[in-house]
Design goal:
heterodimer, A: mainly alpha, 11 helices, 72% helix, globular, disordered N terminus, B: alpha/beta, Rossmann fold, Alpha-Beta Plaits, six-stranded mixed sheet, four-stranded antiparallel sheet, 12 helices, 13 strands, 28% helix, disordered C terminus
Chain lengths: 290, 409
């Protein structure tokens, strides 16, 4: 070691001399509480509601879902021939939600990645060295916010559309269809947003994570579009079947194809993928340098 | 109390911190000094568990940071002023931190008052100046009323009033029995604030001692002797007479002589005996800043050079003089060598400058490392001050002294 030879022997006696100083340390009068996930949840709720990006992304989301939903409702009801009486009228909410999913992806990514972009993450991780707890709290708070917003807007649109089409001979959706068309899609989209949040935590870069997630939504369909050859037929079908827009349409029993996921399958798929990604992000977060 | 043992951090093949061991004790302000890029911030991050050390360990009160129960109530840290989400208001930023560690909300308004940000509490921190950002960071550090505080460059961007405030804050926090660990690259600031110093360079420990010991071990008491300008013989005569009498003479860039190892009256006597007139004979103490710079000189990673503008100059018209370089441009490659007693760290601090050599060290031979003024005339590039002052008798100083690195450590 090439540290100075001289100061070291000198430091030792100085240290021993002061170690016996009267300062026994400082004790704060503020009571110390044992922290748990609840504290992190409240903190993350404060964080997510106190930045403008939340208001903007969710505002645009609601606007897209309601606006496009009502617009399609108006168009379809004025020309009722486009919709047969066998179709599920809730299907009309699909387009708004598909576009709106981009907003949820953005908000999900920003919830984690923006902390890395601004340096806030160092403050957060200093204040809560249990890094997994922070990620769990972020995930939970975001999921609840995204789910609630999607549920409220999809229910509103569904009511509006069934009311608009009620006079034009379209059948009323069944209870199961109602459940899938509101709670089902809301769970699906909130999980898609949660996946984005986790990807944001893994990549730690907002623009990169948003790009990847939009790619995940759009790329399979676009790639499938260029697979003309017979030999790739199976791949093509699988890509279309499991593309996110198609999975979303399964909730309206309105799939583009007749193979692939059906019923509640899309929800289990996105749940499994998100859980895997979450485990990866958790492990990375624990061992990486902030 | 913070304790680091053999702390090492490598990023790829670059070693940021190497085998660093130190203790930071409660009840005192400990300064953490080093040039830019010497590993101060990396060390701070390792203390806070943000970065995992490659080797070694660091504990706070006996626990690694990430295993401390409710860490923010025991340790508060200001890492960098901009470690906040700019879109969030100051109050909401602190509120989220308070909620995270179970601190009563009332405390948020308290610390906002302590740092003087109560009027801009509702403003988004994006619009904050650097000084306001520092205050917000200090507020976050104080939020948990912790017994250990870490501040990384807390006075950056603060106005003089703010600097004074931070200085007093550090001292009062330490006086309450807390452990205060402050990093800085400003020796002058630390000299006023710190009780104890830890100096690192290139990630390695250079010094760990109390500020008083640092001063006495590193600052040279010397006498400045100036002979009348233009009387070169007188100066050389005096210089050799002083050396004969056991003094250590070092020419300064402006033509004065820096004499160590002889008391002032003795210098006067020698000059009188030699018939040399003196324009100046004054006691001096080399500044702490200089001692620090000398110590870290070999560990400076980022060194500026003179702006040459090579190849960009218009050819000079015939007869025109080339412009004289402005002194101070580029980093001086020269600091006075350490005092002769450098090898005797147990020497007691000397009260009277100039009276230093009384005692066993009187007339101590100059360390071999010290460049002799007349040893290498004309060698190396002249230092920038010599160029500007350009007195014909200014002795050139060897710029690349091979013995300097050992010396500076």
């Amino acid at each position: 070691m090439s540290s100075p030879q001289n100061p070291m022997p000198q430091a030792a006696p100085a240290w021993q001399g002061t170690a016996a100083s009267p300062h026994a340390g400082y004790t704060s009068p503020i009571p110390v509480v044992r922290t748990h996930l609840g504290h992190a949840l409240v903190s993350e709720w404060t964080k997510i509601r106190s930045v403008r990006s939340t208001v903007w992304t969710l505002g645009v989301f609601v606007l897209l879902v309601l606006g496009i939903g009502l617009l399609t409702g108006v168009v379809v009801s004025s020309s009722s021939s486009e919709m047969s009486s066998a179709d599920n009228p809730l299907t009309l909410g699909f387009f708004g939600l598909l576009l709106g999913s981009i907003c949820l992806i953005t908000l999900g990514v920003l919830t984690t990645a923006s902390e890395y972009g601004t340096g806030m993450i160092r403050t957060t991780m200093t204040a809560c060295p249990s890094r997994g707890r922070v990620l769990a709290a972020k995930a939970l708070v975001f999921f609840l916010v995204a789910f609630t917003t999607t549920l409220v807007s999809s229910v509103l649109v569904a009511f509006a559309q069934t009311a608009m089409l009620g006079g034009s001979g379209v059948r009323q959706p069944s209870g199961a269809e109602w459940l899938k068309g509101t709670v089902g899609v809301s769970l699906y989209l909130a999980l898609l947003g949660l996946l984005s949040l986790v990807v944001g935590s893994i990549l730690r870069h907002s623009a990169g994570a948003i790009t990847i997630m939009i790619g995940v939504v759009l790329a399979p369909l676009v790639i499938a579009l260029f697979m003309f050859t017979q030999s790739l037929e199976k791949v093509r079908t699988a890509l279309i079947d499991y593309s996110i827009p198609n999975q979303l349409s399964v909730f309206y029993s309105n799939s583009l194809t007749h193979s692939g996921p059906s019923g509640w399958d899309p929800l289990w798929i996105v749940l499994a993928v998100t859980a895997l990604a979450f485990a990866g992000a958790w492990a990375l977060l624990r061992q990486r340098d902030v | 109390m913070i304790e680091a043992v053999g702390l090492t951090k490598r990023y790829g093949d670059k070693t940021a911190v190497y085998n660093l061991s130190f203790q930071v004790r409660p009840g005192a302000v400990t300064g953490f000094l080093g040039p830019n890029g010497s590993g101060k911030s990396t060390t701070m991050r390792m203390i806070l568990g943000l970065d995992n050390p490659t080797a070694g360990s660091v504990t706070i009160g006996g626990h690694p940071y990430r295993r401390l129960p409710n860490a923010p109530r025991q340790v508060g840290a200001l890492l960098d002023a901009k470690a906040v989400h700019g879109g969030r208001s100051a109050r909401n930023h602190l509120l989220s931190l308070a909620q995270l560690s179970g601190i009563p909300v009332r405390r948020v308004d308290e610390v906002l008052g302590v740092v003087g940000l109560q009027d801009v509490a509702k403003k988004r921190s994006k619009g904050f100046s650097l000084g306001m950002g520092q205050r917000l960071g200090i507020a976050a550090a104080l939020l948990g009323d912790p017994r250990v505080l870490l501040f990384d460059e807390p006075v950056n961007g603060l106005d003089p009033e703010g600097i004074l405030w931070v200085r007093n804050l550090m001292k009062s926090l330490a006086a309450e029995g807390r452990t205060v660990f402050v990093s800085s690259h400003l020796m002058s600031e630390m000299a006023l604030t710190a009780d104890h110093l830890i100096v690192i360079g290139r990630g390695q420990l250079l010094a760990d001692m109390s500020i008083r010991d640092f001063i006495s071990a590193n600052s040279a008491d010397f006498a400045r002797v100036r002979t009348p300008d233009g009387e070169r013989e007188g100066r050389e005569k005096l210089s050799s007479a002083l050396t004969e009498a056991g003094g250590h003479v070092l020419p300064e860039p402006d033509g004065a002589l820096r004499v160590t190892g002889l008391p002032l009256p003795r210098i006067s006597d020698i000059a009188h005996d030699g018939g040399v007139r003196l324009w100046e004979l004054s006691p001096h103490q080399a500044s702490l800043e200089e001692a620090y710079m000398r110590m870290t000189q070999s560990a400076v990673d980022y060194r500026s050079t003179t702006d040459q503008k090579a190849g960009l100059m218009q050819p000079l018209p015939p007869g025109a003089e080339p412009p004289v370089p402005v002194p101070g441009q580029g980093q001086p490659g020269w600091y006075a060598p350490p005092p002769p007693r450098h090898g005797q760290p147990s020497a007691p601090p000397q009260g009277q400058p100039g009276a230093a050599p009384a005692g066993p060290y009187a007339g101590a031979p100059a360390p071999a490392a010290a460049p002799h003024p007349y040893g290498a005339p004309g060698a190396g590039a002249p230092n920038p001050y010599a160029q500007s002052a350009a007195p014909p008798q200014a002795p050139p100083v060897p710029a690349a002294d091979p013995t300097k690195p050992e010396d500076a450590r």
